[in-house]
Write a structure and sequence with these properties.
Number of helices of chain B: 5
CATH architecture of chain B: Orthogonal Bundle
Shape of chain A: globular
Structural class of chain B: alpha+beta
Largest sheet of chain A: 6 strands, mixed, barrel
Number of domains of chain A: 4
Oligomer: heterodimer
Strand order of the largest sheet of chain B: 1-3-2
Number of helices of chain A: 27
Strand content of chain B: 5-15%
CATH topology of chain B: Arc Repressor Mutant, subunit A
Largest sheet of chain B: 3 strands, antiparallel
Number of strands of chain A: 23
Amino acid sequence: MLREWLNRLWGSLRRNAREREIEEELRRHLEFAAEQEGSERAARVAYGGVTQAMESMRDQRGLPWIDNLVFDLRYGLRTLRKSPGFTSLTVLILALGIGANTAVFSMVNAVMLKPLAYRDADRIVTLSTLWKKTGADQPSVSVPDYHDWHDQNTSFEAMAYFQAGDTAVIAGPAAEFAADAAVTNEFFEVFDVHPVAGRPFSEEESKSGSGAAAMISYSFWQSHYGGEWSALGKPLQLGGHALRIAGVLPPGFRFPEKTDIWFPANTMFRESTIRAAHNVQVVGKLKPGVALERAQSEMTAIGGRLEQQFPQSNASKNIKLRKLRDDMVKDARLMLYLLLGAVGLVLLVACGNVANLLLAKSTTRGREIALRAALGAGRARIVRQLFAESMLLALMAGATGLVFAVASSRALVLLAPANVPRLENTGVDGRVLGFAFAASVLACLIFGLVPAIRTTRVDLNTTMKQIAAQNAGASKSRFRQALVAIEIALSAVLLVGAGLFIRSFAALHDVALGFKPEHVLLMETSVTARMTAQQAMPVYKRLIEEISSIPGVIAAGATRTPPGTVRSNGPYWVDEAPTPQQISVSRPLAIFSYAGPGIFAALGVPVHSGREFRATDTFDAPPRAIVNQALANRAFPGQDPIGHTIAVATDSLKPMTIVGVIGDVRQLGPASEPVPEVYMPYEQHPTLSTFLTIVARTTADPGQMTGALRRKAREIAPDVPVKITGFEDRLSQNVAAPRFRTLLLAVFAALAVALAMAGVYGVVSFIVNHRTPEIGLRMALGATSQDVLKMMLLQGLRLAIIGLAAGMAAAFAASHLLSTMLFGVKPTDPLTYAAVVALMAMITLAASYIPARRGARLDPMAALRNE
Amino acid sequence: MSNTKSQQRNQPSKTEILQGTLDLMVLQTLTAMGPQHGYAIAARLEQVSGGAIRLNMGTLYPGLMRLEQRGLVRAEWRVTDTSRRARFYSITASGRRRLETEKADWERMVSIMHALFQPQE
């Protein structure tokens, strides 16, 4: 059966060659017959003619529908070639739609659809801390919790925690920052990775407090050791320890993030034993055949037991499991879906436009179609013919769109926020090709089918006559107006979305951050490569002093966490000295920062009362702290906090005297409210201050000062790596996601509006042409050109009103989808809606004006004669 | 006039009778005589049937094409004894298998019909 089909297909494809062959065969037959029968004529009488025989073979020879399709496509190609303007316009419009969709899809594909590059990746899950009261979960887990999870479960083949950092290392001539991770011994089992060179960690190397070993990434091996085997066993300076390189992991393995160095956890840095301190992340690999749901319910039971056992630290705390891939993309998902939906609307508008163009063209083709129908072509046959033409357009547009997509997806990746995972994998693969093809076919169904059916719904007898054509024209015009109204509605929806995002983005910009990032440079430093914390303090002290004295630097200070980064938080106690048993997660929380003299001046944070840190706040001096206004308001309502004490659970529980109150800072980004904060002098907490960011406020363009800062740092402390960024550049990363979606939605909305307006222009032109005799008559009867202009403009305005009414209703219904992405503006913001209505109405009038004026300038005599 | 036409329509045409058995006849001819061109097949059938079966080209060639598409026969251009080009058909292995089963079916059918037409005891 299949063989017959394939042979028939072959017959269809090489039609001409086969045809000649058959003809020759039949002629031979007649020759042989003629010899026997005596004459050629007798042979023909006996065996029939060549033409008739060939006709009867036609159905057997090929697949009739393929033959028809080939014919239709050829015919379609000829028709399209005959009107190159129409063809290229249509292809361009569709290609924009398909291209934009494919580009966005290629991002979705890279981020959400492509499988992770780990073996059995769908069995790898992340385990995070779930706060049952709020329902929120956070990736950080406490070490004692992890040990209980690890020891009590039966669902996991392997489970490990890791703690990632960006630490100073010396692997070559100079110190530098490298991404490192402390990992427990089952970590590599979870990902099923084995060293490509060297060996795994030995048992000795993994013992708590034992000597240090490191695993390096393949790319680190290449960049720092030239891929030489001699790298194995070489020491690597990190955190005041020399780590021996035990092995090299396979190329491409960099988990978590872009890690280059892995070392066994709980060796040179001891792990925490406090259940309320959440500072590691947990991954596990499910046993084969264990469903995520089953593992989740087991872990929930374990979490429940821990709640009972340790109410103080674990009250209302449980465990949340997620597939690793879902966990990685959970923040990007909503944004990607939103963009995909928005760009889908653009494609719909493009389809509406193309359908309109096809309908416009079909009025001129009405006679051709009527003729074919009169000659006996069935309606289905004609619909198929028109549809084949649409398919050709769609496929050409799909191919062009793919080119657009490849070009624009690169730009998209560059514009996208840097924290979207796996975006660098964006590219064209089979799935993207499939999507582009599917989008083309779908588009073809949308824009091609309706015009094809409508065009052929004509009465044979009347279409040939002029009057009926006019009537058909009227109904076609109504249909085209409906299409344009839909286009207006869709683009209005997009415009509302873009408007809300723009308002939200502006609100983000206008927020008072609580500090002044202009002209400020941040210099990240880390002393942990070769020095201990105690040795580091004098180095920092000197560095800050020397940098403040560089000409052009107005103020300089140091902090562990510049605004926008939060590294630690926890409970605090006012005017009491807590015991370790009192540490509990249910107390009010504050953010902890460690900073030095001059920091608030450098950041531009006002000191409300009391004083800044001083050089005298040293390790030996009495413990001091500065709190922010939010904490003062909360813990000391109506009181002056200066002179009171505050204690926090960090390296010591000793109460510290509050010496100052400073203004609030939006630490978690412009969209989040200020929270209570405690600042402590870095010199009094040396172990927590091994990496500090030096903040320098400059007079000049901060970009020009970078070199001077770097030279000074190199001169004072060559072992200390530095990373210098402008504060404003850094902050712009915070708003990268809103900026990206605002920009994209604005572009999509603009595209849709432009297409819709082309539709308005087309339809009003059509109406003017269609009603030329009527206009002529009206003018002959005394209507002024002003009246005609008004009448035609009203046509456009009517479209706008219908479209906008539908569009606003749809936008209103859909806008709550955006609510989590909006800041400082409601999804139903009346100003935005009013602005969109006004804007769209104006543009629609402008688009109708050009054809309307043409109608108004008609010479009545000529118009009438046109009849 | 119209009467004769409808009568003609009610009577099965020669091709319709042949439709089911043509394949069998062609395959059998090719087995018996080896590779043959189309005219030779038609001539052979005419001869065997004593002139009762005269195949029109419009019947024979679509049938041959169907057999070829199903892989039951194979065709190639060759030169005849009289040094002329012709398209020669030969039976394939699967054609031979098909012929065997069809033949058996046919013989069974014939014996059934035969039994049916026997006067009852």
